[in-house]
UniProtKB/TrEMBL annotation:
One of its GO terms (molecular function) is 2-hydroxy-3-oxopropionate reductase activity. Its EC number is 1.1.1.60. The active site is at K169. This is 2-hydroxy-3-oxopropionate reductase. InterPro entries: 3-OH-isobutyrate_DH-rel_CS, 6-PGluconate_DH-like_C_sf, 6PGD_dom2, 6PGDH_NADP-bd, HIBADH-like_NADP-bd, HIBADH-related, NAD(P)-bd_dom_sf. The lineage of its organism: Bacteria, Pseudomonadati, Pseudomonadota, Alphaproteobacteria, Rhodobacterales.
Amino acid sequence: MIGFIGLGVMGAGMARNIAASGLKLAVTTSSPEKAETFRALGAEICSSPADLAARCRVIVTCVPDANALGNVIEGETGLAAQSWEGGLLIDCSTIAPFEAQDMAQRLATVGGRFVDAPVSGGAKGADSGTLTIMCGGSEDDVADADPVLQAMGKNIHHVGPLGAGQALKACNQLMVAVNMMGAFEAVALARAAGVDPKVMREVLSTGAARSGVLEAHALRYIEGQLDGGFRSELMRKDLGIANAVGAHFNISQPATDLAHQLMIATCNSGFAKRDSAALGLLYDRLNGRNEDTSQ
């Protein structure tokens, strides 16, 4: 039986795909509504992470940050509350590489193993089971995790030792954010020159400027579809991680720092709970355009 903790925007779709793959699923959640939803899918409902660990040898977590993951592992009702010899935690949260290594050490005290496996592909990828998953850990642990990873994703990559998956996720997030900066500056320029942003996007998507951000994030902004999806406050957190990782290795990354500051400003402008493409709304304000077509 596979356990799952973290039934949010991403996790719910991932857990559904585990159940749909034929693997038996158990979940723990503080939400009665989510419990009923997954009970209807055939999942067992557990009272706590400790209860889940007592029933499952493999558990997937997808929680907002390292503090949340620490709470899952520690405490009287945490995964590490009792012996979990040989158990495997597949963590799909986005945290810093050194935080993943610390969590692995905590879990090892009760015999547990750890694979950091952050994901990319958004809620759409989580729902459709087409996520890209970047794994850090030992060859044996990643191999043991593979049947579950295959249920959640389409592109599964073992990229190195423990923490390597999180390092690659930091690379992914900084590239997405910097690409968003370029896309929204281009939208502003096109609009100022009298060119329809939809036309700009369609044309540039056929040339060298094409990107996943131009395809998806820019479209959500242009069409005003900014509710749901990957929240700005989570992108702010992820860019903070990317900055911290860069500082740890003493590398210069001015674009990452600027992207982080702009995402902080996006959140401070009232868009923290909206899709990260709400960065485009911040650019609107910077350019004296205050129309929000998504409301």
